[in-house]
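Pipeline run #58 for the internal structure catalog. This entry was flagged by the ingest filter as a single-chain record with no existing model, so it goes straight to prediction. Upstream metadata was stripped on purpose; only the residue string is passed forward. Reviewer on rotation: M.T. Logging verbosity set to normal.
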Amino acid sequence: MQDEEKPSKTQRKRVMHELQELGERLVGLNREQLAAIALPENLYDAVEQVQRITKHEARRRQLQYIGRLMRAVDPEPIREKLKVWDGVSTEETARVHRIERWREKLIEDDGALGALARAHPGIDTQRLRALARNAREERNAGRPPRAFRELFRALRDIIADSQPVPEHDGE
């Protein structure tokens, strides 16, 4: 009964290799990204050190050391942060889709601006109305989507900076 609960040697090795690979991903990050992840100081120092190592064998040993240090860290927050940076996080994907839906609503329906203003009080409705009108004109004329992209950026900033008032965000 006790043997069933204990992970096999193969499972333990797989977990250790996954942690080492996660550590290798950390080595590829820049200083700002590393600072954004709450790493223990010894792990942060080890990652910085391996970034300066050029000799193959020394680098391999340091990466193994990072893998060992990773065992004491909860890897999930690191994985989630990397997913966001990789653009594959489900929350990030849902947020981008929500922004795209708002953009389409604003371009197709002038009344959608009121719903957005109610969901996010204090936004610059005049600017958004002008961007939506320009994006509509660009689309109809077949011009490059400059205002279309600018509207997306404006909506991204609005949705990132404020908490929506209603639960369903006007959708």
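catalog note: The chain has a mean pLDDT of 84.
catalog note: The longest helix spans residues 9-27.
status: ready for reviewer M.T.
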